[in-house]
Hints:
The chain is an all-alpha fold. Helices cover 60% and strands 0% of the residues. The chain has a domain of 72 residues. The protein contains four helices and no strands. It is elongated.
Amino acid sequence: MYTRCVDYLHRLVEERIQKAQQEGVFDNLPGKGKPLKLDDDSSIPEDLRLTYKILKNSNCLPVELELRREIFSLRQLLDAAIDPATRRHLRRELNVLTLSFNLRRRGPVNLDLPQW
């Protein structure tokens, strides 16, 4: 019974997509011909990716992921900074965030490697 319902829904969706394509509904969508912006979620366990994506789209990321994002941004700023005082300040901020991240994970984590 369940399989028949799923098959029916699949066929129904396919028919509606085909009809919309024939009517040109998808012809002038914004972003047509441009590459998709895909997030690198390789460091998130596969079974949690959908959950994290939903949270991210709701602006409710887990603290660990927010810290990862901030650490990544600070590293980029540090790489681009020329002024020694600015570099020192950014390095201090980076150290604090890295420490906070490690404490939340209950141990040191190499942020350069994907976490499985």
